[in-house]
Amino acid sequence: MASNLVDCLKRAVVLLHANGQTTQRLIEDTSRLARAGGLEWQIVPQWDGVFCRWRNTDDDWWETAILSVRPAGVDMHKVAQTNRAIDLACASKHQLTANDLNALDRQLTDIEQFPPSTHARFVVMAGLGASALGLIFGVADSLVLALIFVTAALGAGVRRILAHYSDNLLLQPFVAALIAGVCGGIAQGLFDDPRVQFIVIAPCMILVPGAHILNASLDLVRGRLGLGLARFAYCALILLAICAGLLIGLAGTHGTLSSSAVTVHTALWLDILSAGVAVAAFGAFFSLPWGLLAAPVIVGMVCHGSRWLVLESGGGVVTATWWLALSQAAS
Length: 331
Prior knowledge:
Blueprint (H helix, E strand, L loop, with lengths): L1 H17 L4 H14 L2 E7 L4 E7 L6 E5 L8 H16 L6 H15 L6 H18 L5 H22 L7 H20 L7 H8 L4 H12 L3 H28 L15 H18 L8 H19 L4 H14 L1
Antiparallel strand pairs: 1-2, 2-3
């Protein structure tokens, strides 16, 4: 039975580490599952793999394994369901039995087969999310918002196509940013309106790897310097790919970026609604099921509304952003 438990533990580690679970939760949840089966379990997650060792509580000899897995993706559906499977397995008051492990094995097999968000949802929500970010930053022109939607949706569609042909971690954000740069540069040539530069900016903002930046920060705060620095290096490379794609696209179409864009004041109700749409869009990027979106959408709307109030009361952007982060952490 111990070998079946170890196999389940290894599969759970791969599922969680590859799909965006925080390192602390990864260690805690898998250790809890091991204790329920009577094993001592230790893991050291790193960028290129996870070192594992285990033994029965009455043994002196440790067995070891290195799992080849990178924390380069985010699929919160797989993470949530893996956590749920571990919770169910650990819910019984007795030690795990063979039947418990067989049930867990079947659940993990099903989770491994979960598809990401559908192509239609991914593409449409990318367009809506970019448009919502445009609204938050004061873009009110319907034509500009429509072009933002088309540009971001086109980039998302190409990203899904590239995913079938290349596993390069930087190709997708580079090409999506390149498309944004080209579309924005063309729009600047067709329309004499400084607001069209948001056609470049908004689709690139949805490419920023916020989840990876958060996980990297948490690793550094907890003293996991190796993994934290590796995550930050990954984030920096993604941001570099975005900037390179954007600038190459603009250069090829003689477009520019400037600080002269004219925006309008965003009403509180529109700011809150746009924040909800943006959160729903990121939920699609992270394959979060529709049924689990309500809580993060509500939290995002409330917290972003508080940011709007701080700005309106005279607080600066830094103060408002700090308040937004504090509100989200408290939620």
